[in-house]
Design a protein that fits this description.
The structure is a single chain. The protein is about 0% helix and about 55% strand. The chain is an all-beta fold and about 120 residues long. Strands 2, 4, 5, 6, 9, 10 and 11 form a seven-stranded mixed sheet that branches. Strands 1-3-8-7 form a four-stranded antiparallel sheet, with no helix packed on it. A hairpin with a 4-residue loop joins strand 7 and strand 8. The protein is globular and about 40 Å long.
């Protein structure tokens, strides 16, 4: 069982930056690919980005390429999402998830989500 807790959401203005963190336990964190998803009001949850267990390979949704960066620190059991040049359409609840497999990751564990609101 992997427990995930997200931190760092908040209210920002368009063009601002924000960094989300996701802390994982137990110490099997480095076995999993880690992904970030988001869900806006009235919309389905959508993929944002994923990073493999080593941190060497990443993938991004087209909507965030060049603005968001995912990274991980396996020593700290934490994955990060650096979000730059935020837009109002980035407003959503952001979830981190842990899963096995690559490149087809099966996500078995989810955090509770953290709200990101971008005002225009």
């Amino acid at each position: 069982q992997v427990q995930l807790v997200e931190f760092g959401g908040g209210l920002v203005q368009a063009g601002d930056s924000l960094r989300l963190s996701c802390a994982a336990s137990p110490n099997t964190f480095n076995r999993y690919a880690m992904g970030w998803f988001r869900q806006a009001p009235g919309k389905e949850r959508e993929f944002v980005t994923v990073i493999d267990w080593s941190g060497l390979t990443t993938r991004y949704a087209d909507s965030v390429k060049g603005r968001f960066t995912i990274s991980r620190d396996n020593a700290k059991n934490t994955v990060y999402l650096q979000m730059n040049s935020l837009k109002p359409e980035d407003t959503a609840v952001y979830y981190c998830a842990a899963g096995a497999g690559w490149p087809g990751v099966k996500y078995d564990y989810w955090g509770q989500g953290t709200q990101v609101t971008v005002s225009s």
